[in-house]
Write a structure and sequence with these properties.
Blueprint lengths: L9 E3 L1 E4 L6 E5 L1 H9 L5 E3 L11 E5 L1 E3 L8 E5 H9 L3 E5 L4 H8 L3 E4 L22 H15 L4 E4 L1 H9 L4 E3 L4 E3 L5 E4 L5 H6 L3 E4 L1 E2 L2 E3 L7 E5 L5 E6 L7 E4 L12 H15 L3
Helix pairs in contact: 4-5
Length: 283
């Protein structure tokens, strides 16, 4: 499965729950992607289950990674929570692998960019307090390519977790290990204190919101670049708004608000609806 029997460039995401997780994902195998690339074609990743209006703004979404024990290579994957958050808010997710990113973006012509979370290598120059080690930068380069595309085309951008960290680092920040923040994706862990007179304060109309927490790295307060920051009560950076950003809606959150859109948590709903609306306003 995972690819069209007529050997087109279309790759169909299928549902899965990985053995080490109770979260519903979609996936395609790396082998299926390699088959398309080996024919000199550009992958077109399709999720037949997704429901959206014909005129829904197209949102480019980088695929994440998960390793299934039955396969030698890690899968391309996509949490259902991200699909739900985008589609319920009025957008059309368009999924992108980490190869030939510029070509995929040119084919899709998205109206917005969503950068998901995940665990992946970054340039050593972005890390604080780490010994030199080998890194594979393909995935982070795909993130940076999406940021550059959004900047060149004046598109809204929303990043979460690792997506927020890459956005911050592109704008001069560094990241460092943090303890006590890898707790639970599906429950609130602590509050986020929102900086007054910021984009998020105007959007959410709140001083604090509840957030979940699932990360072992965070933006370093001492190496934060030219960014507006929002914090947890213990001083960990929880959100980033780059100064001098190319569009009003360019923001990253360390938490995973996509987990609370379907349940109707107001700050998460406001965030995603405003994101999709900003994407549609560029038409």
């Amino acid at each position: 499965m995972n690819h069209c029997p007529n050997c087109t460039n279309k790759l169909y995401l299928e549902p899965i729950i990985y053995p080490d997780s109770n979260r519903r994902n979609y996936y395609i195998t790396q082998e299926a992607v390699n088959e398309v690339l080996g024919r000199g074609e550009i992958p077109e990743v399709v999720l037949s289950e997704a429901k959206y209006a014909d005129n829904a703004p197209k949102i480019a979404v980088l695929l994440t990674r998960d390793k299934h024990p039955d396969r030698a290579l890690a899968d391309y994957s996509m949490p259902q929570t991200i699909v739900d958050a985008i589609t319920l808010s009025g957008g059309k997710p368009c999924f992108i692998t980490h190869e030939k990113v510029a070509e995929q973006l040119a084919r899709i012509s998205p109206e917005g960019i969503f950068l998901p979370g995940g665990s992946f290598d970054v340039p050593l120059s972005w890390e604080v307090g780490e010994a030199p080690h080998e890194v594979n930068l393909q995935r982070v380069e795909a993130y940076v390519a999406n940021i550059e595309y959004a900047k060149q085309h004046n598109l809204p951008l929303l990043g979460v977790c690792g997506g927020m960290q890459v956005l911050a680092c592109v704008y001069g920040a560094k990241i460092a290990r943090v303890a006590g923040h890898s707790t639970n994706l599906k429950e609130f862990a602590h509050k986020m204190e929102i900086t007054p007179n910021s984009f998020l304060s105007r959007l959410l109309k709140a001083d604090t919101i509840e957030v979940n927490s699932w990360h072992k790295w965070a933006v370093s307060k001492e190496d934060c670049g030219d960014n507006i920051l929002h914090f947890s009560p213990d001083g960990v950076v929880e959100a980033v708004e780059p100064k001098g950003k190319w569009h009003d809606f360019v923001v990253g959150l360390q938490s995973h608000p996509e987990y609370f859109v379907k349940s109707g948590y107001e700050p998460a709903v406001k965030l995603f609806k405003a994101f999709i609306e900003a994407c549609g306003n560029g038409r």
